[in-house]
Amino acid sequence: MAARALLERDRAADAKSVGRRRPTPSAAGSSATALLRLQQSAGNAAVVMSLSATGSAPNHPAMAVQRCGPVPCSCSAGERAAYESEHADSGAERADGTPDEDSAIQRAGTPAVQRYEVEDCGSGAGARHPENEVHAAHGRARSMVSIAQMETADSTNPTVQQLARKYFKLTVPPASNKDKKLWFGRVRQVMSALDKSNSQATYECESKQSFANGACSKGAMAMTVLNIHLCPEWWSLGAEDRAFVLVHEWAHKFGPSVNQIFETYCDDKGFASLSAGSLVAQPDAYASYVYELVTGSAPSAAVCGTPHAGP
Question: Per DSSP, what are the bridge partners of residue 308?
């Protein structure tokens, strides 16, 4: 139930804005955020006046907002030089990919930095392939994978057990050594990679349904050839189905031991007869597992009734 609530919250957020996600300040930090905005627009003097008017002490916690940093403010040349000397490595990332503390503070109140890229898509009103819809699909797929990854960690979850049998022909919790190797060494590893690496994707919007355009041959909805090429037919899908295709392509691009070229699609008659050893290498097995685990429904005929994606 918690996972369903999280997905519904994500859907509601997408309905309000299908553009890039932006950080939402907490209620506790609202005063600091307001002062930061005032400082950025009117300078430190205006902040001091505001605090004086409200009777706040000079060491009020709100004064922890940005003093001198990348955003221009009313600090002196000496203050600026001192700041840049002290924060010469600001903006660097730790080994685990998270920004260091100083850069996180300096970015307060600015748009969230999205590491994935979208190329050759429209951004103006009436664009045929609008960039913001790619952002929305990426966000939906990212949420689905995150939820699925969290639920998959619970081997006592009856839905996980059911779908592990359905899409991978594996018993969970695994009883045999073979199932243990396939579940922990293959499925769980792929799920973790999809969750951690999807932010590295680069999407390209192709203008024509032709092999010369991103290898978008007839019937293909997306192709992974270095980048992920979104074919014109991808745009005919609904929100959930677009996310399904992105998860499929992420499995190609980021899933260790997942087939990169030869594959069997979920609409193929031979898909159901594949062995467990073959299914753990199929992108559609992961896309279908994630889709049904999160939405509670099997993938639609739009993505599992006709050819939909390629390597």
Answer: none
User: Residue 157 is encoded by which pair of tokens?
Assistant: 């979850």
Name every residue whose Cβ is closer than 8 Å to that of residue 309 and which is 6 or more positions away in sequence: 220, 221, 222, 223, 245, 248, 249, 265, 283, 284, 303
Pairing of strands 222-225, 202-205: unpaired
CA distance 201 to 23: 21
Rg over alpha carbons for the chain, rounded to the nearest Å, is 24
pLDDT in tens, 111-129: 333 467 787 787 776 678 8
Domains of the chain: 25-106 (no CATH), 117-304 (3.40.390.10)
Q: Which region holds residue 123: left if phi is over 0, alpha if psi is between -120 and 50, else beta?
A: alpha
Helices (H), 115-187: 131-152, 158-168, 177-182
The mean pLDDT value for 24-38 works out to 47
The string of pLDDT tens digits covering residues 37-65 is: 555 555 555 555 555 555 544 444 333 33
